[in-house]
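Notebook entry, structure prediction.
Reason for the run: the old model in the group folder had no record of what sequence produced it. Starting over properly, with the input documented here first.
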Amino acid sequence: MLSGILRWSTVSNVILIAGTFLTFVFYGQAFVTHPTVWVPILCTAAGWLFGILIHEIGHAVAAIACGWQILAFQVYPVGWHGPSCTLTLLPRSVGKEAGGYVVIVPRSLATGSATRWMTILACGPGASLALAATALIIRETWLRGVDTPGLIASNFGLAIAIQSCVFAAISLIPQGGSDGAHIIAMARRDPEKDAIWPYVWARTMLDFNLRLRDLPGWLLAAQRDLPFPEKEREQYLAGLEIGLALDAEVPDYSRARALIDSHLVHYGASAWLASCDAYLAAIGEGDAEGAARRLWSGEPDRQVMAIQHAAKASVLAVQGDRRGMRAELLRMRKANRADCPYRNATFRDIERRIRAALRPA
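New structure, fully documented this time:
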């Protein structure tokens, strides 16, 4: 393991800077007749974008072949959302975190093996190296034949090959959340971490806006065997039951009421529970006064801002406050967008129910 002055992050930055400089030079030297700074800059940027696309396609193809489900496929500034089959223009904050990524989960416990996960991880750098080899072959077999005194086309093949090798190398360096770091972590195997993978998969699905009611049965069943402290596991499972009752195609409001009241007695109040309670009272029970009393009065919980705004909007709707309802629904949509840029079908239906519950002023 590198330490001191020489660290993996330093190695990664040196490779990136050197690779970018070399590709910029080769792209620039390709344009003999009309040399300019902007064209090689654009070519370099396009080359990186193309390299990211091929790298992520490598992960995605391997995931499908290994029996995993794709939740999101992103190459900034565009992302594809698997559950809704929609394309989304991504905010800048997502691009800063990573230029590209694929979010995947297994379709069963059997396909969620460490071997398959490592195979999927390795296929990203593998695709980058395959692109580098292909670019060099095309350079030697075709591009050299179309070189002219004014345009050295073969330089494009060399530049793309360099960029692809750089991308493969950086992704394999074991730092942060790189492919290499994940491969090493999986190879070492930690039984305690392996036992909580079903929780990680469920959390990932929900974080990327798969509906709670659409979580596969095998994964819901696996939640009951999580190695959490008994009370913590029971509280987590009780919360799932509340969510499933409210997110059903036809919400089971009477069951949700019993579950929420029981949850409050056994585990106490929280911003999330109070918001579910207020929403249920307003939309499921039509109790404007009771819903207003149930709203969370403590400090806002930044992790569940969307449901807090939805609860306030539902109370305002049954109170006949159209303007206030609209303002809270707008805040709800912004909170959802901040949590995940992709379409959220659950909150889309929540908004529809809230608008339908609006009473005359």
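Summary: The chain has two domains: 8-189, 229-356.
The old model has been moved to the deprecated folder.
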